[in-house]
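Work Package 3 (structural annotation) set out to generate three-dimensional models for the target panel prioritized at the project kickoff. During this period the team completed the workflow that converts sequence records into discrete structure tokens, so that structures can be stored uniformly alongside our sequence database. As a representative example, we reproduce one entry of 133 residues exactly as it appears in the project archive.
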Amino acid sequence: MRSRLWIVLWIVGILFPMGFAASLWPPFERAFTRTFSTAWSHIAMHAFLYFVLAILLTQALRPASLRAVLLLLGLALAVAVCQEALQWLTIRAEIGWSASAFDLLVDLGGALAGLGAARVWSTLRSRSAGTPG
């Protein structure tokens, strides 16, 4: 049950309209601009958000089949699409399809990396406990 709470809180954090909040509060805008001023920091943050989301989802779903893995990735992609839609709605500027598609690919890449990291961690834990992974 606790893992589901963390998932919900993480998704709320992902979906929180940071750009819109930055436009309302100048100190937050300065911090937001400094943090995301480079393309690399923007990419790293997107990847990190979905890396952690995938790890949290693996804790709740324990994907053991291809279908479960695809469900997990589908959930992560659905959150990513919602995030992009919220950005379009709150910023009220034409972000562009190519920028959104790129963000979605980075998000999916982060989720895949998180899924892989969770799998490696599970395998290592199983080996150290003496049970098959």
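The mean pLDDT is 88.
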